[in-house]
Amino acid sequence: MDSSPESVVTEYFSRMRAGDKSVVDLFHEDAELVGLGTTRPGKDAIRDFYHGVIERAGPTPRSAGPLLADGSRVAAEVYIDLSGDTSVHAVDLFVVEAGRIRSLTYFICAHSE
Fold first, then answer.
1. Which among 81, 87, 98, 106 could bridge 60 via Cys, Cβ 3.0 to 4.6 Å?
2. Does 113 reside within a domain?
């Protein structure tokens, strides 16, 4: 796998679409996941989050536009389809260092059209 920030983020979304819990392997040991007023520090907390979410909700992200990249930072606007015919509009902001996700901050749209 190419270790460029864009390639790492592309692989992240590929694994998420496949329901592949190894998505956690793309994160640094001391990575941080931030969203919905919560910070999950460290790979163990991030693993717990993703394993639970993948099992419960089966999130399937689909792109709402191209990746936006600036050095180690990558932004992605996505729609995330969840089990139960629910869809969430989100913006994910990644920081990728040395081929691993250092941080992922996600924002959920407060309302949809």
1. 81
2. no
| pTM metric for this prediction | 0.93
- Mean pLDDT of the residues in the chain: 94
What is the extent of the structural domain holding 32?
5-108
What's the CA gap between 71 and 74, in Å, rounded? Answer: 8
**How many angstroms separate the CA atoms of 65 and 48, rounded?**
29
Q: Which helix (H) or strand (E) holds 51?
A: helix 43-57
Mean pLDDT of all residues in 41-51 = 97
Instruction: Tell me how many domains the chain contains.
Output: 1
Is 80 exceeded by the pLDDT of residue 110?
no
The answer to whether 75 and 92 are in contact (CB under 8 A) is yes
